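Thread: Newbie trying to understand structure tokens

Hi all, I'm a second-year student working on a class project, and my supervisor (Dr. K.) asked me to get a predicted structure for one chain before our next meeting. I've only ever worked with sequences, so writing a 3D structure as a token string is new to me. If someone could post the tokens and maybe explain what I'm looking at, I'd be very grateful. Here's the chain:
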Amino acid sequence: MRALRLAVLLSIAVAISAAIFALARPVDAERAWIGIERHWRSLLAANGVKLPGTPDLASLDQRLAAHGLAVGNPIFMRIFKREFELELWMMRDGRFHRFSTYPICKWSGELGPKIKTGDRQAPEGFYTVDAKALNPNSAWHRSFNLGFPNTFDRAHGRTGSFLMVHGGCGSIGCYAMTNPVIDEIWRLVTGALNKGQPRFQVQVFPFRMTERNLARHEGSPLAPFWASLKPGYDLFEASQVPPKVTVCGKRYAFAAGAEGYDGSGSIDAGCPAAGASAP
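---
Reply by user tm_fold:
Sure, no problem. This is what the structure looks like when written as tokens:
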């Protein structure tokens, strides 16, 4: 009960402080808000309190049935740092449907991509995960490796390794989901891979890629990088089919995914032909 009262007070404090600061310096306010979010989420997890927005993990089978889905359907993920959210989508009738949005307990660093080993940054960009990336015996309960550095990261000389989505609520460049949440994600991940999906695509963004959010950060040195992610975001938003992602001239390149495409294509160097779509 004490932990619950503490959570309510912290939520009120977060809302008030963010509103006041945001009026004067929106980008600085965002940075401060992220720090506050990290603190109170860690505090809730340490006290065994379920994070706000966590679905009813005990009713996975019923929730799947309500969406017309089943363990084993192909999956797709999106991560939004600013919102502290991981979306898990599942395929039905040739397109992906958002099954659940999970709160992220903690990620480290600032908005922006990982550049080098030791910078504590959690990566941003487009990644794929296969069965070899899964660790059921992780120090963080269960984990899967995002595959940083990918072809794009290597083209830019970025360094680092073992950037994970895992359990618990600690992070040095990873996305920590808490143990109960990673257990549910794990069941859906392993179900899809065991049923034949070769790998699944994970799109990692600094924030939801709306025009308003991009405009708020147009003065950032990272604005060109973030703008380069938006076409991939927009293709999925328009069709609920993951794009085929390649790296062309040190930039991400995208081709629209055809209905039924599960996003399992590897992210390699190459430039898509005009009008091309992923099979």
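A couple of things are worth pointing out once you decode it. The longest helix spans residues 2-24. The first strand starts at residue 75 and ends at 80. Feel free to ask follow-ups in this thread.
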